């Protein structure tokens, strides 16, 4: 259930951030959802890493989830501070490079449709965070593409599966 809880808010933040990248909303308006999502995912990270049932698998999940939690907190910081985002861009490369082998290993180990879907999510996230690297660190003109990919990833890797999970349908 915690995965659905986090994915639901990941979907929300990616959709809103995608709309911002597409120039549909002002950058000041994304701060709240980025902080909320960082807090929600951060609470789950703390539970998974340090909770009473923490084990190797939950700590692995916490480690990987913290990559995204950090991203959302950093986006909010950049909007509040006026930072240019290059540091976040380089961090995004770190996330992309980490997510790629996570995806490969997840595809290798997948035993059912849900696990295959999660492996595909990791691959999508690797591509998305690589786009952020190109846009923020290298200043490639891919903001529009990143906006659409962010929005679609929000719906299909976050909101929809998260919603189905919290409803007990997935």
TrEMBL record:
Q: Which Pfam families match?
A: AmiS_UreI
The principal location of this protein is membrane
Assigned keywords, A-Z:
Cell membrane, Membrane, Transmembrane, Transmembrane helix, Transport
Cell compartment(s), UniProt: Cell membrane
InterPro entries cross-referenced by the UniProt entry? AmiSUreI_transpt (IPR003211), AmiSUreI_transpt_sf (IPR038523)
Kindly give the membrane topology term recorded for this protein. Answer: Multi-pass membrane protein
User: Does Metal-binding show up as a keyword for this record?
Assistant: no
A GO CC term attached to the entry: plasma membrane
Q: Which family does it belong to?
A: Belongs to the AmiS/UreI family.
| Protein's name in the database | Transporter
What is the originating organism of this protein? Paracoccus yeei
């Amino acid at each position: 259930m915690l995965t659905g809880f986090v994915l639901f808010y990941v979907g929300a933040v990616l959709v809103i951030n995608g709309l911002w990248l597409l120039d549909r909303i002002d950058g000041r308006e994304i701060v709240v959802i980025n902080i909320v999502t960082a807090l929600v995912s951060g609470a789950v990270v703390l539970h998974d890493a340090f909770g009473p049932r923490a084990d190797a698998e939950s700590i692995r999940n916490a480690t990987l989830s913290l990559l995204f939690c950090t991203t959302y907190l950093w986006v909010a910081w950049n909007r509040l501070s006026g930072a240019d985002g290059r540091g976040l861009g380089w961090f995004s490369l770190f996330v992309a490079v980490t997510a790629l082998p996570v995806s490969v290993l997840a595809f290798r180990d997948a035993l059912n449709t849900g696990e295959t879907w999660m492996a595909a999510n990791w691959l999508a996230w690797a591509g998305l965070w690589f786009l952020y690297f190109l846009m923020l660190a290298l200043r490639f003109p891919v903001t529009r593409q990143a906006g659409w990919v962010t929005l679609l990833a929000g719906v299909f890797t976050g909101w929809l599966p998260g919603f189905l999970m919290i409803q007990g349908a997935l």
